[in-house]
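User: Structure with iron/sulfur cluster, tokens only please.
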Amino acid sequence: MHDDFITSDYENCIICPRKCGVDRTSGKVGFCGMGDKPVVNLAMLHHGEEPVISGSNGSGAVFFEGCSLKCVFCQNFDVSRGPTGKGREYSVEELSELYLSLQEKGAHNINLVTAGHFVPHVAASVKLAKANGLNVPVVYNCGGYESVEALKKLQGLIDVYMPDMKFCSPSLAAKTCMAKDYFDICCKALDEMYRQTGPFVLGEDGLMKRGMIVRHLMLPGQLFDTKKVLDYLCGRFGNNIYISLMNQYTPFEYKYEAMKLPEFLQRKLPQGHYAAAAEYLDLLGQDNAFVQDEDASGDELLPDFKT
Ligand code: SF4
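Assistant:
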């Protein structure tokens, strides 16, 4: 029943900033590669998120297939390229039941991973789950390339936004995710997210109940751009948000496409760059930050997707 109400949002799809305009209800797909039914690849208690999200029990992560950004260096490459054939379609009711089952298993929150191309279903399913007893925070975990119009549909439903801010440079964004407008779009999206949540709130258990965590994955040779991202975030939001500075970039071999990583991404972070960025963040006066070990790269931080 709920799915019928939201079908029209997919008919001339402008859900994300790509604004493909395709009719996803007719079997066509746009840049994200997905039809008009959400496909979930994996749902699990995830212990690899930031401590205020994972806690001791884990975060109830729901990994959606497809992505409207598709960075060439994607750390969730297996599921971001489009349908894998391993996930399954979920209705609004089934999604809401999935969230409730994760809560039942002890999840500290429901962590919707890369769901931006399914916002109509996400909004309806979270609303239904909350009406049926979902009382843990709902986390919207995304790449930061979201439209303000779509985010407004999530008003009152998302408790914690966890977007990336990947880069400032338009040419870097164009080379890695074919979105030279990434920074401008991301700035507007983060403003809307912050407008909805306000300054972060931690519970007595030390876990995040409300607010925003912005992640930045450092890329090899891009320390200057990282500093610009940190300048922006600290200047705009300061200590009202958390910043998660990530050191886990891992170059990998493409298994599925006849393309290679651009040469500058075929290596790990140069020694010392991560420490320099962490020190810079400190100098900017950011107390609410997550930093990783100097060498956190590798697959062990990534969930085990079905392949
Ligand atoms: S959600 Fe998908 S089809 Fe719709 S505008 Fe974005 S990339 Fe295009």
